[in-house]
Amino acid sequence: MCKMKKLLGSIVSDWSRLQRQTYATSFVTPDIPVLPSTDHIARKYQGLDYDTVQRIKEAHVVPCIKSLNSKPLLINEAHMQWLYDHTGKRYLDMFAGIVTVSVGHCHPRVTEAAKSQLDKLIHCSNLFQHSAMYEYTRKLVKTLPPHLNVIYLVNSGSEANELAILLARLYTKKQDVIAFNSAYHGGTHLTQTLTALATYKYPRNNAPGIHHALMPDVYRGIWGGARCRYSPIQTKRYCECPPNQCDATNKSYEQLVNAFQYNVPITGAAALIAESIQGVAGVKEFPRYFLRKAYEMIKSTDGLFISDEVRNIVRSGTR
After folding, report:
1. What is the domain class of 156-315 according to CATH?
2. What distance in Å separates the CA atoms of residue 286 and residue 278, rounded to the nearest whole number?
3. What is the C-alpha separation between 73 and 87, in angstroms, rounded?
């Protein structure tokens, strides 16, 4: 019996020591890169205290508004690529407001222009003219192809796509619209129907006349090869397509033709809508020549092509 107790005691002692070693090993602090220095000094936080903010959010803010962290960051200030929380801690912002802060937070030129405009005029409706609106319109037109030279300014991407579908239906006198799987086009009733992602769907009736075609995805889709994209970043899939040909494009185009044949009246569709680069469902680029072929097809049936430029133009280049 004494020998048994001694043996058990030894086992327990060894196990406890192993646990302590494992615990210590699990919590070794890794080498964390040091943030580059900056001349900017954040202001002292003067807002509601952290716990009060959390109570207000819990009691009065819709629960679908989620925070990115389990312990939410309470941001006090931002400058260029840096965010500062209520304690003064600095973070490198690699999120950029869901890729909307294109030139950094509080860029001096942007804030100077905004302050100057707020001192002169905030709002008077477009029933009256104001120089700034036409200065912006002129600059915007200069970035577009010559035949795209008429601007209708709206408040959001959802509103822009609603307007585009309305104009297409009125102009063509047709109803049906084709979009692509995994597309994101907005949060209104119509644009949620155009959107083909379960995350943004609700158990309700969709807007009528909207259909979806297979999204050509050369990375994870049915067809794809090592030379499918215009991008310098290609997939590692095998490719034996001859020069100036793309098997993924041809087969994906056949699927698009089928979507029109099986879903749209013989009179054709009002429009085909596409993001030039999909982003919400993961960055997806169309294979070479596909969008041009799709554009030519919808135009050949007197429909319109709607380009929903979300990831392109100023977010990823100048055009």
Report:
1. alpha beta
2. 9
3. 10
Where do we find the tokens 């919590």?
Answer: 27
Contact criterion met (CB below 8 Å) for 227 and 239: yes
Nearest to 313 by CA among 279, 273, 289: 279
Distances (CA, A) of 61 to 47, 48, 64, 75, 238: 18, 16, 9, 17, 50
**pLDDT level of residue 270 (50, 70, 90 thresholds):** very high
pLDDT at 30: 67
Give the distance from CA 267 to its chain's centroid.
34
pLDDT at 266: 94
Nearest to 213 by CA among 182, 165, 181, 190: 181
The predicted structure's pLDDT at residue 318: 54
pLDDT digits (tens, 9 = 90+) for 23-38: 444 455 667 788 999 9
Torsion on CA atoms 35, 37, 40, 44, rounded to nearest 10: 60
Q: Where are the domains of the chain?
A: 72-109, 156-315
CB contact at 8 A, 302 and 172: yes
Which residues contact residue 211 at a Cβ distance below 8 angstroms, ignoring those fewer than 6 apart?
Answer: 176, 177, 178, 179, 259, 263, 264
Cα 111 versus chain centre, distance: 24
Order across the sheet with 271-274: list the strands. Answer: 210-213, 177-180, 271-274, 304-307
Give the pLDDT of residue 68: 81
How many Cα atoms sit within 13 Å of 179 on the Cβ side? 22
CA distance 201 to 184: 11
Strands 210-213 and 177-180: parallel
Q: Which residues pair with 213 in a beta bridge?
A: 180
Distance CA 211, CA 264 (A): 8
- Strand, coil or helix: 251: helix
Cα dihedral across residues 140, 145, 146, 152: positive or negative: negative
